[in-house]
Amino acid sequence: MMKNFYNHIDDYLNGSLSGNELKVFEAELKVNPELRKQLAFNREVNSTIIETDIDELKIKLNQAQKQQHKQVAKRRLFITSIAAAAAIALIVSIGSLFLNSQISPTQIFADSFEAYQPIGQTRDLSDNKQSENFLLIHKLYSQKEFAKAIPLLEAALEQETSSAQAHLMLSSAYLSSSQPAKAEALLKNLLNTEMSFQHKEIAKWYLALSLTKQGKTSEARTLFNEIANEHGFYAKEASDILALFDKL
Amino acid sequence: MQQYSNSELLTKLTEQDQTALNYLYIKLFPKVKKMILRLGGDYDNANDVFQNAIILLYRKAKNNELNQTIMVEKYVVGICKVVWQKHLSQEKARSIRNEKLKHELSPYEQETISEYLLSKRKQLYLEHFKRLNDDCKNVLTAFLKGMSFAEIAKNQNFTSEEYARRKKYLCKEYLVKSIKSDPNYHLLSNDYDEEFL
To answer: In 3D, which of A165, A171, A174 has the Cα closest to residue B82?
Structure first.
């Protein structure tokens, strides 16, 4: 008879419990949540001890970090050494740059837009249909084959209307294919539904960019203001764009 | 700098190829650093989050748990982004006392955070394991690699099999106590609503 089940956790994990002892231990596991918790904890600890490769990886990552640091330092040195020569050219060119540069909504859009990067595999689409079609959409999208991805995403959204990630992917595909009006309609639709804080901020960001692209700067400004005041992921970019809007 | 295809990069990562790891650092770390510095973190935060993301990717690649279509660059930056956004939303929830914000993660984000926390816990376990004396480290490693107590006793020059068994028990008990007395363990072992960075 086992007096202290906790002392037998390693034996159980190691497969050295058998017969009646194993039965008693497993019966206790079913009714004892604390024992289950300790079992999970010990399983994690034991697997860590024999994972010696992670420690080696960590050492190699630290070497890689040093390497990267050196490269940055080297680049800085190079930049400093050519700075003097560049300064002359800069003084000459800067005058003409000011003369030629014009801030426009299209330019702001071009400088700020980057296609949405889906995190993971849009589970809300994949849970029901882990199909070749779904994998194809991801492949095309990641390869920036937006013209091919758009009809597939449109069809997928007809099936799964609630997928926030798919909405964001499709709106980005529209924006990448110079169809900002379609992106605007899609994102306005999406923002009327329930979603996480993060998705909401991303949807607002792309909607604001769709409006900017179409020259609807007043509506875009309202959205960029909201994003900037919410202090989320795009807050800094939104503030920068608002500063550029003031120069339009 | 040598260039890698996505599948080459995954293979080289599972082999812990130093050149490929250098490549990953040079190519991806500046992006992660920029993102985290811009959002109120510091260099150490960025480095910690980045290294743990690589370790997470390595574990998954090694255990064949990765989808074939996964893009390494997006995956690593994605993990860092989810982890840092979670950190920010915790900060925000705290500052405006909005409990509701704490539960607005997608299933993928929740899974990523759980995997990240597990990775951090394992890092902590390893730190405590390394602090054990050599005898303890050897006994525990041998036991967990499936060696019998009789073999352990012989290899370690212990007087008996029973001594090896007792030694293993005491070393493990010491390790568990050491881990559980670490304040970081409690932050990492509760649910992910706790601060974890």
So the answer is: A165
